[in-house]
């Protein structure tokens, strides 16, 4: 896990180098008129797709939704996908239900895009356009370099289809921002020391960082066996906030942008309840990320901080983060 995390700047740099070519292919394949976009994913890829939902809907001004794969694989649902773009993402490209659902959507009229780290896998065969992450083999069960590459790939798709709040400068700065986080794992180690005996952790974000809060919770569950739950700032207030009492750990993600004011207000509310706050964000004291990136791109170094925390906390608890008990790299759901 540590070695694969260290590869992320290079993985992101080579994806940025290919973005013009892949964006041109996606723009050329865009259905006209475009009625909407549907995303197909499971596991960590599902969190990347949630990020994609925000990036794509903001860019294209059309509805974007996550598919419910079991409607196709178990319930035999049939829908008309003419005029839709279907984007499926899977690190392995071999999860049976993801492959079959993208194929069914293609047969029902969708234009299809596959985002995968396996360009020769069955998922690629169902795609009109392929974004091969080219991240290299990922052996650790917790996805790290493939996840950040998936997030970047969704940003690529968004800018191919519409107007986005980032520029080429953000792509240029991204690898160095991630390298900067990776070069300084002391904040994560210190934060982990205070969480060794935690019974639970809440992870929270809003907007583009909501998906990152969900992924952070998944990584913590996978590697540490602590019950971590991810929420949007809005949903946390709708009931789950009741579990947060004095010294309950909360991992809060934020970045300068439209959601910053609400996240600041939520942190104040949680502080009043006595929560043990761990803030991940630009200029944040506990788990800082570099300045100079547009809000949507802060998500990537932000989730790298979460990866560091999950790894360090697993080690502090005497666990092996590379191979959590009972998990395997490819989960053959159908």
UniProtKB/TrEMBL annotation:
One Pfam family this sequence matches: SIS
BP GO terms, sorted: carbohydrate derivative metabolic process
Entry-linked PROSITE patterns: SIS
SIS domain location: 22-167, 191-324
GO molecular function: carbohydrate derivative binding
Keyword tags: Repeat
Protein name, as recorded: SIS domain-containing protein
Organism: Egibacter rhizosphaerae
